Amino acid sequence: MEEDNRATGVRQACDLLKVAFGPAVVALVIIAAVTLLQLLIANSDMTGALGAIASMWLGVHQVPTSIGGRELSIMPLLPVLLMVWATAHSTSEATSAYSSWLVVRRIVASALGGPLLIAAISLAVIHDASSVLTELQTPKALRAFTGVLVVHAIGAAIGVNSQMGRRVLTASRLPDWVGDSVHAATAGVLALLGLSGLVTAGSLVVHWATMQELYGITDSIFGQFSLTVLSVLYAPNVIVGTSAVAVGSSAHLGFATFSSFTVFGGDIPALPVLAAAPTPPLAPVWVAWLIVGATSGVAVGQQCGRHPLPLFASMAKLLVAAVAGALMMALLGYAGSGRLGNFGNIDVNQGSLVVGVFFWFSIVGWVTVVLTCGIKRFPRTPKPPPGLSAEEQIDAAPGDHEAYFTVDLYEEDETPHAKPGEASD
Questions:
Q1: Contact, 328 vs 401, CB < 8 A?
Q2: Cβ atoms 262, 275 nearer than 8 A
Q3: Where would I find the beta strands (DSSP E) of 232-303?
Q4: ∠ Cα 179 85 186 (to 5°)
Q5: What is the C-alpha to C-alpha distance for residues 95 and 16, in angstroms, rounded to an integer?
Q6: Which residue windows are transmembrane per the record (predicted)?
Q7: How far apart are CA 317 and CA 320, in angstroms?
């Protein structure tokens, strides 16, 4: 018995270590390998390599980097999404549907504590490297810890919810349809991003000549390979900007502004994936971009209508899904925005993005719920035909008539009868 308990304890400790340091250390190793490879190809010395590795690891968690007074705060979304997925995967493997709340708290604490420890070490390494590389500035500690905490907290929440979603919902005493609302919001966001990705790919094909010009800034194969890698890393940022335009908002690349109705030109960074941006004057066909937002609203409505509910419950479920979807897109828009040196801010209009997503998810979603019979209707009691007496209405009404016959028979039995040969009064 003691050996079994000891084996269980060792296994749980190993799981906690994997959750705490698995995703963060794997990312650190990959970043170190890429950094050292770039330094070797460039025939550069290794001075400040540790500072660069630590800065890139914090950059994966959306922590800005400042070099020579110029801030790089717009970080690629793909590494962040991969980090969230890795944290969710490791947390989900360490959690089961029957885990106690104490075990769950330990798993979540490990998922947050390990990365925070590595973040503290990274800040110390950057501070030490800044004494050698004077242009490298140490990030603010609060901003660094907040970014690391938010990224891994989202991943841990997704991982725990994948195993214990129903238990968490029951313990919180929320309505059962809240889980359906979250699933509907996720489906709508994925549909919006997926369709926007198709639009981005199609726009790259249309602007193929512009993309070749952006590749022409370098003649080396390694330089073109680096541009391709950067384009892949920043592709989710471009897709989020496309999604913002698809719901009626706008995206900004410095002084350049893009929306479904107008485009103001300006200088853009020499990144091949940015060739997908439309060029002025804007053709009327780009207004059809709004179909993407409407289609994502249909996806939300279909998910909300899978389990019919009464009218007010259906409305509440759809509104919660619309609000959740708008918040998800706002978070992605914030994470995919930032400042890029002399180019200025590269971002989306957060206010109109939230309003646009909520509009398409709620209005088009509600129409879809109604059309897919997502509202439960209770059968009405049929009214008796007019002109019937009270007894006939009772006989015509649905129900159990046995009670009426029982009462009638009982009253007949209780009525006194005259004996044969006796005169009635």
A1: no
A2: no
A3: 251-253, 256-258, 263-264
A4: 30
A5: 10
A6: 20-41, 73-91, 103-126, 141-161, 182-209, 221-246, 253-277, 283-300, 312-333, 353-375
A7: 5
Token pair for 34: 């890429």
> CA–CA separation, 184 vs 186, rounded Å?
5
User: 């046995």: which residue's tokens?
Assistant: 402
- Taking only the tens place, the pLDDT of each residue in 62-94 is 999 888 778 788 899 999 999 999 999 999 998
Instruction: Record the tokens describing residue 202, joined without a space.
Output: 């199609």
- Average pLDDT for residues 98-122, to the nearest whole number? 92
Here the tokens at position 309 are 């509910």
Give strand ranges (E) for 84-166: 136-137
pLDDT band at 421 (very low <50, low <70, confident <90, very high): very low
Strand pairing report for 251-253 and 345-348: antiparallel
Residue 244, helix vs strand vs coil: helix
**Residues 199, 242: contact at Cβ < 8 Å?**
yes
* Token pair 């279909």 in the structure block, residue: 302
Q: Which two tokens stand for residue 99?
A: 């885990």
Confidence of residue 15 (pLDDT cuts 50, 70, 90): confident
Mind listing the pLDDT tens digit for each residue in 185-210?
999 999 999 999 999 999 899 888 88
pLDDT at residue 346 greater than cutoff 80 = yes
Tokens of 223: 């330089």
The total of other beta-carbon atoms located within 10 Å of residue 80's CB is 22
